[in-house]
Amino acid sequence: MSTTPEFHSRFNIVNHTVPASTPRFVLSCNIYKRISTSLKDKSNNSSTPPIIFTHANGFHKEIWEPVISRLSSRWSAGDMYAFDCRNQGDSAVLNKDVIEDTFDWYSYAADILKVVDTYNLKNAIGVGHSYGASAFILAEAMRPGTFSTIVAIDPTMFPKAIYTNGTLDNHPMAQGTLRRRDTWNDREDARASLLRKRFFKAWHPEAFELYLKYGMLDVVNKDGTTGITLKCPKFQEAITFAAVGGGVNDAYERLNELDIPVHIIAGADSDINVPELVEMKVNQCKYGSVDFIEDTGHLVCLEKPEETANKISAFLDQFWDSRGDEQERPKARL
């Protein structure tokens, strides 16, 4: 199943620029609406709750399209929203004149709430990857009752005993980001360069092509030559890794405040979420559950979009069908 052009034949995609939670900042947001072909489709569309998707650090909203295209017909029937974090993707381009040299994960959470308010979303489902998942936890803790459930895909959140924020100078992932190449002659040059790295070789081809298409920005160099660079400046990705603030720890500590189900989907080979840590996170939830996807790591939704979509759809089926009875909330299963 290709996300282009087959994907575009199934979904109407509208891009909006919406206000962020902080004045002067804006967010680039895509709304995905499945093109209805029957009265049954239209009926499902009106009854399916909206889904919001948030991306991991260094990525962008379109990276979710391989997963969106593979959701079951029940869960792709409603409106779906994916937006770029204020300092990444198209939002970084829009905010280039006001972007800051610090970042707090709570701003991502506050921007999620701003998207909810902008579109007046009710019973929304949050699906986030990595720190995008943590942002949903913080958002629901900030304003309880905003979401009906959260699907956290290999979430980046830790107890203080295991992990605390470093600084830009001593954070290994931040320093690795700053050393990484971020300019190429064109997309073919970028494709050849990136596919030499094991990191990108593991991606599903659709996700990789979307990264090349939507994660890159065409530029004109000072000498008049053209090239491409990352839409998310690598300094912004680095300061997000080394974010000042307690978001990475607070997301874990505040899991027990949430009165909604939190379902974790983890890569079985994740170096971020080893099984023991996943168990800690599930047990920190009032209503926690988990699925593991084999033969993949932290970038589970980029490497295994079909398996990820199937796990999301199956969990939402279970959750939604049991909503009528509060005693039937999904419980942890390890």
Tell me briefly what this model is:
The protein has helices at residues 6-10, 39-47, 65-68, 89-94, 105-119, 131-142, 172-179, 187-194, 198-201, 205-214, 234-241, 247-253, 275-284, 300-303, 305-321, and strands at residues 11-19, 26-34, 51-54, 80-83, 124-129, 147-153, 183-184, 216-220, 226-230, 262-267, 288-293. The protein is an alpha/beta fold and 334 residues long. It has a single domain, classed as 3-Layer(aba) Sandwich (Rossmann fold).
Layout of SSEs?
Layout: H1 6-10, E1 11-19, E2 26-34, H2 39-47, E3 51-54, H3 65-68, E4 80-83, H4 89-94, H5 105-119, E5 124-129, H6 131-142, E6 147-153, H7 172-179, E7 183-184, H8 187-194, H9 198-201, H10 205-214, E8 216-220, E9 226-230, H11 234-241, H12 247-253, E10 262-267, H13 275-284, E11 288-293, H14 300-303, H15 305-321
Parallel strand pairs: 3-4, 3-5, 5-6, 6-10, 10-11
Antiparallel strand pairs: 1-2, 2-4, 7-9, 8-9
Helix pairs in contact: 5-6, 6-12, 7-11
